[in-house]
Amino acid sequence: MWLVTLLLLYSLQEVHSEDVSSTRLYFVNASLQKVTYSSSVGVSLPCPAGGTPSAILRWYLATGDDIYDVPHIRHVHANGTLQLYPFSPSAYNSYIHDNDYFCTAENQAGKIRSPNIRIKAVFREPYTVRVADQRSMRGNVAVFKCLIPAAVQEYVSVVSWERDTVSIVPGGLSLIGRRITRVNYRLGRCYNTLLP
């Protein structure tokens, strides 16, 4: 009798351990915290979680409110991808285009929640960068700065400096001339990049 009971317990334990090892939930990219995108392009964001067997993926606002489809603005695909479509400035809604979201994955193993992901739309707007005029004594160093308008500073970065269409290598020196009385900003240019 004891032998039969032990065999039954052993077989139940094996079945249970096989179920647990084949059923799991996991994060694909738990480090994703912020997504900034251009309103003229839109964004598609896969849920950073998954599971075996396939998990049901859902998106929520950080407040816990369910995400609902807004035609031509926001859609959650069957595969768990959150899509925010391109939109005009008149269609901007901070509740949709500048908010914290998270997604969940759920299957027989349980349910996991991603960290909050800040999703923020930015508008393409014309802007001009410039190089400030600098003065320096002969033999000294002049430091130039690329001035970017405050409205776009968060989304624009300097990618290169040029003098007469020749790139200035980072950390390199650029000799402007032997008889410098005044260095004019027109001798150099800074190039920058914005979101696509």
Automatic annotation (TrEMBL):
Key words of the record: Signal
Organism in which the protein naturally occurs: Knipowitschia caucasica
Domain Ig-like: 18-118
Domain of life: Eukaryota
Gene3D superfamilies: Immunoglobulins (2.60.40.10)
Protein's name according to its UniProt entry: Ig-like domain-containing protein
InterPro entries: Ig-like_dom, Ig-like_dom_sf, Ig-like_fold
Signal peptide (residue range): 1-17
